[in-house]
Amino acid sequence: MATAPRPRTSTRDPEELAHRLTGWLGTRLPGAKAVGVTVPASNGMSSETLLFDIEHPEPPLRACALRLAADPAAYTVFPVYDMVRQYRTMRVVGECSDLPVPRVRWLEEDPGPLGAPFFVMERVEGRVPPDVMPYTYEGNWLHAASDAERERLEAATIGLLARLHDQVPVKEAEFLTLPGEGDALRRHVTAQRAYYAWVVDGLAPSPLIEEAFDRLEALWPTDPGMPVLNWGDARIGNVVYDGFDPVAVLDWEMAAPAPREVDLGWTVYLHRFFQDLTVAFGQRGLPDFLRRDRIETRYAELTGHTPRDMDFYTLYAALRHAIVMLRVAYRQAHFGEVAVPADPDTLILHHGSLRAMVQGNYWD
Q1: Annotated catalytic residue, options 131, 233, 309, 343
Q2: What is the CATH class of 141-359?
Q3: Is 233 an annotated catalytic residue?
């Protein structure tokens, strides 16, 4: 990921989107115009983002961002893009906690205006730790920061998780309950098995991913604890910072009730993913940043809950990420950007660390 061209994130025409957005905006705010419409270079593959300003007498200008469901004809990364679910999640978190969640303005469920459902939220200015090139690489603002500044960002970010888990009553997010039998953790893993089956349908399965699922069963927690609302994609690349302080928490499409450690494991492993890549390419990275022991200790101090079974939850995070990476690789193959190798496990960028977790020696 650090050296290959960035995978395409959209098959849509930005100019056409801008024209259609202006037409739709007039139905919600008569006399308004969408101006300065841009598609950010960091646009993700789970949904698309448009940035624009509203030109209108009251107020004269409002900065907005629009989240648009992925084009279903563009070999999507996920099988379902439920924009209503994301919209409702952001409203619940905004109403029930003090997390800096951007205010959502409008929801459009009709795919007619832009080709897919979308919602509009207020845009928050700031900076985001980059994925490409990763923030662990030399030359970006977070890598260039002092140890004290990174520690400030780390502490504030773990504080976001602590406040989310403690402040938002899980009953307010019952609409996010995953289908299936068993407790919240079992339902969460069952959903990941279903996602994996969808990814490999008609394609080569991954022996490593299937081994990882088996290893999860062997490590299954005896007491997962009561579920809380999990952010789902809990990582610093989904936070907008003013300096080193969080001012917007983004990307709620993976939110669901689950044990606290699901979010914590994701935060720990997604940093390790970038750190491991950086070391593999000959750089030191940020080995003292977002360390597992520090995250666990800080979270316990903030919440009174000592994280448990973290070998299970970091393995689960690496497994979930592997399924996404396999789908992304098959998507790149669909667009002719990569060739499919004989061993599908090699399509998973972190197959080495995932295998080490399965074997139980990654954290040695």
Answers
A1: 233
A2: alpha beta
A3: yes
